[in-house]
Amino acid sequence: MVQFTSAILALAATITGAQAAFKTACTFPYDVCGWTLTNNVYGYDLATLQEAAAAAGQDAGNGTILFDTIYNCHADGVIIWNHHCDHGCDASLSVPNANCRA
Ligand SMILES: *[C@@H]1O[C@H](CO)[C@@H](O)[C@H](O)[C@H]1NC(C)=O
């Protein structure tokens, strides 16, 4: 059911033209964890993360692929799925550049 809902959200994002939806844009040259992007500050919506994951050929229905992942921030709040962290993603202390956990 979770995956079914995700598929619908991804489809909706595609139909509406895949505009990134967020409260605060993350901008170049920052790298941010997926779970950071969905927090109250950035406020990216799930469909935007799914769109970025799908564009990178990833499984957008898989939560760890969406959240435990480093995204590169580009102009206008565009996020590019970069790589999944097998041991989780850390918002580093030298924010906002994220790192994968060892
Ligand atoms: C989700 O992705 C992780 C990391 O690649 C993988 O280990 C896991 O098997 C995937 N889960 C599903 C349900 O595909």
What does this structure look like?
The chain has 102 residues and is of the alpha+beta class. It has one domain (2-100). The protein has four helices and five strands. The chain has helices spanning 2-15, 34-37, 46-55, 63-67; strands at 31-33, 69-73, 79-84, 89-91, 98-100. A three-stranded antiparallel β-sheet has the order 1-2-3. Helix 1 crosses helix 3 (46-55). The longest helix has 14 residues, at 2-15. It binds 2-acetamido-2-deoxy-beta-D-glucopyranose (NAG). The site of 2-acetamido-2-deoxy-beta-D-glucopyranose has 5 residues, from helix 4. Residues 1-20 form the signal peptide.
Structural class: alpha+beta
Low-confidence stretches: 11-17
Shape: globular
The tally of structural domains comes to: 1
Q: What's the main sheet like?
A: 3 strands, antiparallel
Q: How many angstroms separate the termini?
A: 32 Å
* Tally of individual helices: 4
Instruction: Bin the helical content.
Output: 25-40%
Rg from C-alpha positions?
13 Å
Signal peptide: 1-20
Keywords: Signal
Short description:
With 102 residues, the chain is of the alpha+beta class. It has helices spanning 2-15, 34-37, 46-55, 63-67, and strands at residues 31-33, 69-73, 79-84, 89-91, 98-100.
